[in-house]
């Protein structure tokens, strides 16, 4: 494994242990050149996924982008970082086991919204405001009305103008 600090091609594994309820292996590594320590995760990848964007463009699925999106929605909320990692792993497993090599960006967004709605209302509203492309305060009012009424939200994203 290449060192993220100095770019040296080799590093030594110092410690390995299960992570994410056995779905991954966490490895502590040390670089032989610069001596810096870093952590890597090893996960099973069932298939290569491609995300089909709303405009029809196809891009490789990026687990880190999914993680960043969920982390931003949960910023300053009382959610443990390990819980975020578990959520991301769960969503990725659902997508990989779906049987399709291509998934729509909408399907990914809906999975995230489903999880956030159960986990944290504030994070749900934050994510939904970006995902559904809110333009006016009434968009927030409608979503908050759906949350307080306990009804299922209309999950179709709004199209940009």
Summarize the structure.
The chain has 161 residues and is an alpha+beta fold.
The low-confidence runs, each spanning 5 or more residues with pLDDT under 50, are 153-161
Per the principal axes of the C-alpha atoms, what is the gross shape?
Answer: elongated
- Order of strands, main sheet, comes to 1-2-3
Number of strands: 6
- Cα(first) to Cα(last) distance is 45 Å
Radius of gyration: 19 Å
The helix content, as a percent range, equals 40-55%
For the largest beta-sheet, the strand count, sense and barrel status come to: 3 strands, antiparallel
Classify the beta-strand content into a percent band: 15-25%
Helix/strand structural class: alpha+beta
Total helix count?
5
Structure description:
This protein has 161 residues and is an alpha+beta fold. The chain is built from 5 helices and 6 strands, in the order E-E-E-E-E-H-H-E-H-H-H. It has helices at 63-73, 81-96, 105-119, 121-131, 137-149, and strands at 11-19, 24-31, 37-43, 50-52, 58-60, 102-104. The chain has a 3-stranded antiparallel sheet with strand order 1-2-3, with no helix packed on it. A 3-stranded mixed sheet has the order 5-4-6. A hairpin with a 5-residue loop joins strand 2 (24-31) and strand 3. Helix 1 (63-73) packs across helix 2 (81-96), helix 1 (63-73) packs across helix 4 and helix 4 crosses helix 5. The longest helix has 16 residues, at 81-96. The radius of gyration is 19 Å and the shape is elongated. Mean pLDDT is 82; it is low at 153-161.
């Amino acid at each position: 494994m290449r060192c993220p600090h100095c770019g040296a091609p080799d590093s030594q594994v110092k410690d390995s242990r299960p992570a994410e309820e056995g779905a991954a292996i966490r490895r502590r590594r040390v670089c032989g050149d610069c001596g810096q320590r870093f952590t890597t995760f090893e996960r099973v990848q069932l298939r290569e996924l491609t995300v089909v964007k709303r405009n029809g463009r196809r891009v490789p699925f990026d687990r880190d982008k999914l993680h960043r999106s969920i982390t931003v929605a949960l910023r300053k909320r009382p959610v443990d970082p390990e819980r975020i990692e578990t959520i991301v792993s769960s969503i990725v497993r659902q997508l990989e086991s779906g049987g399709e090599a291509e998934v729509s960006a909408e399907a990914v967004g809906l999975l995230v919204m489903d999880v956030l709605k159960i986990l944290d209302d504030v994070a749900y509203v934050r994510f939904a405001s970006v995902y559904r492309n809110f333009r006016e305060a009434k968009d927030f009012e409608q979503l908050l009305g759906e949350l307080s009424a306990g009804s299922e939200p209309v999950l179709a994203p709004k199209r940009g103008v």
